[in-house]
Design a protein that fits this description.
Elements: H1 2-12, E1 15-18, H2 20-30, H3 32-52, E2 58-67, E3 71-73, E4 82-84, E5 89-102, H4 106-172, H5 178-213, E6 220-223, H6 237-247, H7 249-270, E7 275-286, E8 299-309, H8 314-383, H9 389-424
Parallel strand pairs: 1-6
Antiparallel strand pairs: 2-5, 3-4, 5-7, 7-8
Helix pairs in contact: 2-4, 3-4, 4-5, 4-7, 4-9, 6-8, 6-9, 7-8, 8-9
């Protein structure tokens, strides 16, 4: 059953070679977080249209038809009552229009605030894009690291298998003990277990990356093997700091936050200013009930003019709102300085780690060279019965660890480089 299940999975699995550029393209089209950020931009864009619509005139209409009863007329002492006939069908039609001329700055501030909110949402898309690309890249490089580790293990397994065959030949010749074979068979079991663990980790990492990229379950992503051979730029820290200042979405969001609080302050101040509007109206009513007896006729009245509205209470209420907006603006300035400091520190730390990763790679390459030389010397001594089997095991483990560390060092350089781009907002 297990063999059959594995066969079915292998039939449906598809290998998908993927470069870093193709990885980012798939993030662009498949990331749900990025899709949600784009939806927020659409909402903010519509908010701008809503804010601009405040400049459009307000037009209202009212139509009613009613039944009027007869009119009762009495004296002031409520005697001498008499009824006056009233036309029973009543009608009323009114039209009103109003156009804001001056809003005290409220409408322009609202429109500008909505535009800034749209830019904030667009910056949110850029920030989400950076985050999702860096997340996918981390999974991609982890997959790359696991692939290389599996390759190292497979090479060491093949080397150990060859060594076991050589030892068995010597055992058949009576030159070594059976215990020597057992030691390396134990070594082989440990290598096989390590390889199985790596394969399981690879399966998990591959599944997670497939989900991130919206790929079918069972697809096997093949990272670009030329990635570690590419020459990466080694710009000085000042260039990265300058790039971050110009491109970081985090800093752009903080800068937009200052502009938004400035518009909120303008909105608070607008409440302390008069509002001016042009208005026009037309009323068509019937019957005329102001006459006694009522006249069964229609009357039409129209008018237009200029209206000024001023909220006197705003003089002693809105000043608190203005003070609150001013404090919010000062806080947003502080937030920008804190964000700039955080980005500066992150860039400095990432650049230091990037430079250090090259030193680590050089060290690991030297370690691999020395471990390989040591293994060859010990192997030769062992074959000539000048070294113990424990010496061979130690030399083999030393070579394996050195090779794994070199693989990790190469991946660390790539990760550190792209982390700089991520922090600078240029990933």
């Amino acid at each position: 059953m297990i063999v059959a299940a594995c066969s079915v999975m292998s039939v449906h699995a598809a290998e998908l070679p993927l470069t870093v550029g193709q990885l980012f393209e798939r993030v662009e089209t498949q990331s749900r977080a990025l899709g949600a950020a784009r939806a927020a931009v659409d909402v903010a864009r519509q908010g701008v249209e809503v804010a601009r619509s405040a400049w459009l005139p307000d037009v209202g209409a009212n139509l009613s038809i009613s039944y009027l009863g007869n009119t009762l007329i009495t004296s002031r002492e409520f005697d001498e009552a008499q009824w006056a006939h009233t036309p029973h069908l009543g009608n009323s039609l009114s039209l009103e229009a109003q156009q804001v001329v001056y809003s005290g700055g409220a409408i322009p501030a609202s429109v500008r605030l909505a535009e800034l909110q749209q830019r904030q949402a667009e910056t949110g898309v850029d920030l989400t894009r950076q985050q999702q690309r860096f997340l996918a890249l981390g999974q991609y490089l982890d997959l790359f690291r696991l692939n290389n580790r599996m390759r190292v293990y497979e090479q060491n397994i093949a080397l150990t298998r060859t060594l076991i065959d050589n030892i068995r030949e010597k055992h058949a010749q009576g030159m070594v003990l059976r215990n020597d074979i057992t030691r390396y068979e134990l070594q082989m079991e440990q290598l096989q277990l390590g390889l199985t663990t790596l394969r399981n980790q690879h399966s998990i990492a591959n599944h997670q990356l497939c989900n991130t990229l919206g790929l079918a379950d069972g697809d096997v992503i093949i990272p670009d093997t030329t990635l570690v051979k590419q020459t990466l730029a080694r710009d000085i820290e000042a260039q990265w700091q300058q790039q971050a200042t110009a491109s970081s979405p985090v800093l752009r969001q903080s800068t937009l936050g200052i502009a938004m609080t400035e518009q909120q302050e303008r909105l608070a101040r607008s409440e302390m200013r008069p509002k001016v509007a042009l208005f026009a109206a037309d009323n068509f009513n019937g019957p005329i009930t102001l006459e006694i007896p009522p006249l069964n006729k229609n009357i039409n009245v129209w008018y237009l003019g200029v209206g000024v509205k001023y909220n006197i209470g705003a003089l002693y209420k809105s000043n608190r709102k203005v003070k609150q907006a001013q404090l919010a603006r000062l806080k947003s300035i502080e937030d920008l300085e804190v964000a700039a400091q955080g980005v500066n520190n992150a860039i400095q730390a990432a650049h230091t780690a990037y430079e250090q990763s090259y030193v680590e790679l050089a060290t690991q390459q030297k370690s691999v060279e020395l471990a390989r030389q040591n293994y060859e010397v010990v192997n030769e001594r062992y074959l000539n019965q000048l070294a113990l089997i424990t010496d061979m095991v130690d030399a083999s483990n030393l070579l394996l660890n050195a090779q794994l560390q070199e693989v990790d060092a190469r991946i660390s350089i790539i990760m550190a480089y792209y982390k700089l781009h991520y922090l600078a907002g240029t990933l």
